[in-house]
């Protein structure tokens, strides 16, 4: 692999920005120009522009256009090789991811109407565009995982790497903190629940009078992933759906509809289509509550009582998080929040941290637990949380004892980087790569034009 190829860390960071929830708003013929081709996959000028804009939106300095273009070409090589190697991603996983991102976007814009007006595209067009993006991103990630899945490191690898660093070149580690939280989601008010139930009962009555369930699901369901398929969720294995949904679905006979079922996702009207061994196929119409109108009174009261118990040492914070936190990503780890970039339990305590979190920690002492704080999850759901300021590590020169996890992560990334480099040496000869003359000075993979077989 030529040295011009992005490092694994830089590639991952760039692809993460491309994968952020959103749609291209680029307008004009020039942005639709194809600037690179990898087998049957294309990179548009709008792709490059969108990636650059993603940096600006996150207040980060964008890399040079050539570096961004190379990352986009790398993504297309991953896709082309996934096709050659028959690597796939289950449609249900794609739909779930698309549904999550679409819901996030709707929450950010306040309503579907606002989203349509902002992008000048219909919901169906946005869904189609987003699904294609999500599928490509997940395939690329699956290929990266396949390439590096067997990469392992040993403690000896970590020691050798650290001992090879000259003493005067050891990195300086800024202040870091380890924090945990216990999250309780806002609850649907009785008024909202009654409103949603009334709407769903009206839809159920229309089906009972002869209207088609699938058509009503397409028109009214707020599960954007399944709505475009008439509410169909495809075949699911037992245990795959949330218990409330699965329990209600499996009580039905094929063709029957359920009563109103409430789960963490909202209120459902379910129709069972078929049971096949350990799998079942169901459709649903989902109505979600307005997350800006949810009731935070009960979660605040619950967490306030739980905090009193933790402070009195009646229960340890870690056990309380495992037993009561509704943040699935952290509950099993005792509530510890991990840095999304490094997966470390320690994260830099600086102004790059979420502003609200940074200011809250600034008022707390190590070892203390906050009062219940309003919180919004990444998917837009309202919640309340307790923060536990577990520990703070002062700025220091890196040492193997204190920073083993970080150093091990660097060694692992370097080894994965090498595995990807070796993979790309072979992969670029299996695919056709052509870059527009406008960007030939970029020297993608060390050359302006690469042609495979």
From TrEMBL:
Q: Which residues form the signal peptide?
A: 1-24
InterPro entries according to UniProt:
OMP_Chaperone_SurA, PPIase_dom_sf, PPIase_PpiC, PPIase_PpiC_CS, Trigger_fact/SurA_dom_sf
Instruction: Please state the Enzyme Commission number of this protein.
Output: 5.2.1.8
Gene3D superfamilies cross-referenced by the UniProt entry:
3.10.50.40, Porin chaperone SurA, peptide-binding domain
Keywords, A to Z, come to: Isomerase, Rotamase, Signal
* GO molecular function, a single term: peptidyl-prolyl cis-trans isomerase activity
Classification via PROSITE patterns: PPIC_PPIASE_1 (PS01096), PPIC_PPIASE_2 (PS50198)
Q: Which domain of life is it from?
A: Bacteria
Any single Pfam family the record assigns to this protein: Rotamase
Q: Which residues form the PpiC domain?
A: 174-274, 277-374
- SUPFAM superfamilies per the UniProt record, alphabetical: FKBP-like, Triger factor/SurA peptide-binding domain-like
Protein name as it appears in the record:
Peptidylprolyl isomerase
Classification of source organism: Bacteria, Pseudomonadati, Bacteroidota, Cytophagia, Cytophagales
């Amino acid at each position: 692999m030529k040295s011009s190829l992005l490092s694994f860390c830089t590639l991952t960071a760039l692809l993460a920005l491309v994968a952020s929830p959103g749609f291209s708003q680029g307008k004009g013929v020039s942005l639709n120009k194809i600037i690179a081709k990898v087998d049957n996959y294309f990179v548009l000028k709008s792709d490059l522009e969108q990636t650059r804009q993603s940096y600006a939106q996150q207040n980060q300095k964008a890399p040079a256009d050539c570096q961004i273009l190379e990352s986009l070409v790398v993504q297309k090589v991953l896709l082309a090789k996934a096709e050659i190697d028959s690597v796939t991603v289950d449609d249900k996983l794609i739909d779930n991811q698309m549904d999550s991102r679409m819901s996030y976007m709707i929450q950010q814009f306040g309503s579907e109407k606002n989203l349509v007006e902002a992008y000048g595209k219909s919901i169906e067009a946005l869904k189609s565009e987003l699904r294609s993006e999500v599928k490509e991103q997940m395939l690329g990630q699956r290929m990266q995982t396949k390439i590096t899945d067997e990469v392992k490191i040993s403690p000896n690898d970590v020691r050798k790497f650290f001992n090879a660093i000259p003493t005067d070149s050891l990195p300086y580690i800024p202040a870091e903190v380890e924090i945990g939280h216990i999250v309780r989601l806002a609850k649907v008010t009785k008024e909202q629940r009654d409103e949603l139930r009334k709407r769903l009962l009206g839809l159920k009555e229309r089906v009972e009078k002869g209207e088609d369930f699938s058509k009503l699901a397409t028109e009214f369901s707020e599960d954007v992933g399944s709505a475009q398929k008439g509410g169909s969720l495809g075949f699911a294995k037992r245990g795959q759906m949330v218990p409330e949904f699965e329990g209600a679905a499996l009580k039905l006979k094929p063709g029957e509809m359920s009563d109103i079922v409430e789960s963490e996702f909202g209120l459902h009207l379910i129709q069972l289509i078929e049971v096949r061994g350990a799998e079942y196929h169901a459709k649903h119409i989902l109505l979600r509550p307005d997350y800006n109108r949810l009731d935070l009174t009960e979660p605040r009261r619950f967490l306030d009582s739980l905090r009193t118990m933790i402070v009195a040492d009646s229960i340890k914070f870690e056990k309380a998080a495992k037993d009561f936190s509704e943040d699935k990503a952290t509950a099993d780890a005792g509530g510890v929040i991990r840095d999304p970039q490094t997966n470390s339990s320690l994260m830099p305590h600086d102004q790059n941290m979420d502003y609200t979190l940074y200011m809250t920690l600034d008022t707390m002492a190590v070892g203390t637990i906050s009062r219940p704080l309003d919180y919004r999850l990444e998917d837009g759901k309202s919640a309340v949380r307790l923060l536990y300021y577990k520990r703070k590590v002062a700025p220091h020169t890196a040492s193997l004892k204190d920073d083993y996890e970080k150093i091990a992560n660097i060694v692992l990334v370097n080894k994965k980087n090498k595995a990807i480099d070796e993979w790309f040496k072979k992969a670029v000869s299996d695919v056709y790569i052509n870059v527009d003359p406008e960007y030939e000075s970029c020297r993608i993979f060390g050359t302006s034009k690469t042609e495979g077989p």
